[in-house]
Amino acid sequence: MPTFLERQTATPEGLALAVAELRARIEERRKAAWQPELGETVHERQMHWTLIADRRASKIAQGEFIEDELLPQLRDDKEMNRLGREFLKAAERGNAPAVGAYIEEGFPPNYQDRQTRETALHISAAVKARKVLRVLLDCGLCNFLLRDKGGRLASELAYLFGHDPAAARLLGTKERKQAEAQGITLTRRPKMSP
Amino acid sequence: MRFSDWQLNRLRDALRAYHKFGRDPVDGRHYNWKDVSEAIFLSAEVEVPPERLRQFVEGVKTQSGGRRLLTMQDDRLEAIAKFATDEDYGLISEGELREHAPSWHAAQRLLEYLKLDFDTERILPPSTLEGTFRNGRIDEDNYVVRELTLQRASDDGLIQLVQIEDSYDLLDGMQFDDFTPAKREEVRESRVLYGGWAILTPEGNLLMFLKKERTGNNCYYLTIAAENWHSLQAPAAALALLRHDYPIETNEEEPLEPKRLPGISETIGNNIALFRRVA
Q1: B190 close to A (CB below 8 A)
Q2: Which of A42, A43, A83, B79 is the one with CA 20 to 30 A from B271?
Q3: Among partner residues A98, A165, A176, which is closest to B21 by beta-carbon distance?
């Protein structure tokens, strides 16, 4: 077990405990008869997600929540994979309250499917689940440059499978802005090293 | 070369990405449609007006508020395809532009293997199964409607499949039957498409093999009950099917034992669905 001075997620045991606690929090939310509304106006939703992001950052700092960088370590964790499958299924079903609840309880929104490498962003774009897409955009935690196993960005899936040019345009802009901020030259497919 | 809708969409997406992500190497500004048009001309020496390109990719607004994607003359499409598959631009590979036709050979071989030499006469004509069948059910927090279309049934029992899987929230799902098609589309939360093929075995079982369009993940259906199929000449009214994808995952760490079977049976029971004919 981690010592008092260590972050909980710094050790494998602490990380497993963080996953178990995440599962317990999500189960509690699932038992609730209803999920609170995330806010009706853009401003209300922004306020809501700002609070969530602050809380999340503080919990990550304390080692209670799982940050994206730790996901590779959890690749073979059965419990994490089960939670991940449920999260991605909620995205595929267009279940925005469930996706929102997972993120609020500390589930990493950039979790990638083991087989397809899809994120919730890819899936919601591909199935035209606009309410889920809005939650993912509003939460401000998504990495827009993650690619699925086919090297595809979310904007491509929105265009090809969601038949949603408007969502593809919006996601393309987000991808471009993030790439610029990180000094990355963005291409439709990842560039192969020579 | 004639392009199918599927291929046209691939070309459109390649142009969309080039337009969205590309930057002028000299001044760093983002590309506009004129830049895309010039790049196509440099690659294929065919002029495609910038506005036509934009309409090809983004579509034009319709009176009902939707968008209609336009197509182009063949020589321009050829030029776009040449540009998009140009290795210097790296937008799309030749392979991506090829149709993903399902492999009928596998289905034919399976039919040949299952064929009974002592009983070659089919009692149930495969064409009686052609049509669209629908099943709606609550799946955790959603109402999921699956529409399975069986088409182009051959006399030897090979059938083409399409499945549309739509999700609704529970409240809308309860009113699904009362909604008009337009209302259903308005309240729909998501849509997943599958394609594939089925064979009708000599015993009258339908074995269905579907692939999710987006990822290629497999899904299987198997007939588990039939309504007087041996005397059926009119179109089948319903299909009772067992749906399966991944093996049922048991939670406990213990090995599989007989005492675990009731739980597994219950889960399998939830995967049995009655699809009723709707068209």
Answers
A1: yes
A2: A83
A3: A176
What whole-number distance in Å separates Cα of residue A106 and Cα of residue A111?
A: 12
Q: Classify strands B67-68 and B190-200 as parallel, antiparallel or unpaired.
A: unpaired
C-alpha–C-alpha distance, residues B124 and B218, integer Å: 27
Q: Output the six-digit token pair for A122.
A: 């890819």
Residues facing residue B135 across a β-bridge: B146
List B residues 20-79 in contact with A (Cβ-Cβ < 8 A): 20-21, 23, 30, 57-59, 67
Number of cross-chain residue pairs from A and B with Cβ atoms under 8 Å apart: 96
What is the token pair recorded at B189?
């939360």
Report phi then psi at B131, rounded to 5.
140, -175
Does A116 touch chain B if contact means CB atoms closer than 8 Å? yes
How far away is chain A from the Cα of B58, in angstroms, using its nearest Cα?
6
Residue of A nearest to B249 (CA): A82
Residue with the two structure tokens 């059965």: A78
What are the pLDDT digits (tens) for B165-183? Answer: 999 999 999 999 999 999 9
Pairing of strands B206-212, B142-151: unpaired
Q: Which of A145, A163, A166, A164 is nearest to A154 (CA)?
A: A145
Please state the φ and ψ torsions of residue B151, each to the nearest 5 degrees.
-140, 165
Quick check: B44 pLDDT over 70?
A: yes
d(CA B226, CA B228): 6
Tell me how far apart the alpha carbons of residues B234 and A54 are, in angstroms, rounded to a whole number.
Answer: 64
Burial of A192 (0-12, 13-18, 19+ CB in 10 A): exposed
For the beta carbon of residue A132, count every other beta carbon within 10 angstroms: 28
